[in-house]
């Protein structure tokens, strides 16, 4: 929300304006994915990533007793690369494909056009909001979706809580920390985010999505798979960052020109879902998840009769996904399911 002073934006409003302003927002005017863009996501590194997700989805559907109708929903589909590979893989499993209603929730009109061109499956439905989903079991997939949502930051200064704002008053944007009534806020959101914290990153929009998703999972069965930059420690920290042309840059100098993201606190998500439950959650690293799903075996099969250079390329890409010094450790995976569901593949 805009402060009484028109030059002050709360941090979430700043990020919203920067990334998603209808005309000038970063994601609304640019396709940032790939080597020639600003950053590269797992589906754009290797098709093996999306193939593993496809096999995971089919196995989860089997665990749900192969419902004849169910919803698969990708949240924030980027350039559509993951869904393109999912659809290609699903085509090899006709019983599954016939049962699966594929949906995408995407905010950027520009990226929707890119997705439609890339995926070429006429049966996919692009949702305006999650309430359009009918009452079938739902499997939600969110790869780097939550880290792209606006967050608020709160910090303790001299034992008092402050909310971080961005001040547009001067030509140089700057942060401004304004005293904040945390007790009142916690009463409103109905849980205590400040417990044992000195610094908080909280996304009202992520909480709103989780509420809707968990309601659907509880009512109709299913789950959500979250793959994202995340950490497991209880103490929250300042993880806000901006990325342009594959390099970190200054958040305040990145207004509408760079991607702005943060790392998810899985502890906070667990607190949120505990409030909204009952539901179960499991978490692990991307390395363990993909390795348990058999990405190395798949790489071996795929590259068997390939020339050395192609084989090396496949393994180089898989290494980027699972190496502990690259995405393997930085990226975490969380599965949230209806509490009666005991599906554990990959965890
Ligand atoms: C970092 S990108 C990830 C894209 C893709 N999942 C991938 O891994 O390549 C974030 C995506 O979420 C979309 N997005 C952000 N906020 C959204 C919202 N509130 N509703 C729907 N999509 C949103 C962006 O437009 C973008 O497509």
Q: End-to-end span in angstroms?
A: 39 Å
Bound molecules: S-adenosylmethionine
- The amount of beta strand, in percent, is 15-25%
Inertia-based shape: globular
What is the helix content? 25-40%
Structure explained in plain terms:
There is one protein chain. The chain has 14 helices and 16 strands. 38% of the residues lie in helices and 24% in strands. The two termini are 39 Å apart. The chain has 347 residues and is of the alpha/beta class. It is globular and about 60 Å long. The strands form 3 sheets. Strands 2, 3, 4, 5, 10, 14, 15 and 16 form an 8-stranded mixed beta sheet that branches. Strand 6 (152-157) and strand 7 form a beta hairpin. Bound molecules: S-adenosylmethionine.
In short:
The protein has 347 residues and is of the alpha/beta class.
Comma- or semicolon-separated keywords:
eight-stranded mixed β-sheet; five-stranded antiparallel β-sheet; alpha/beta; binds S-adenosylmethionine; globular; 347 residues
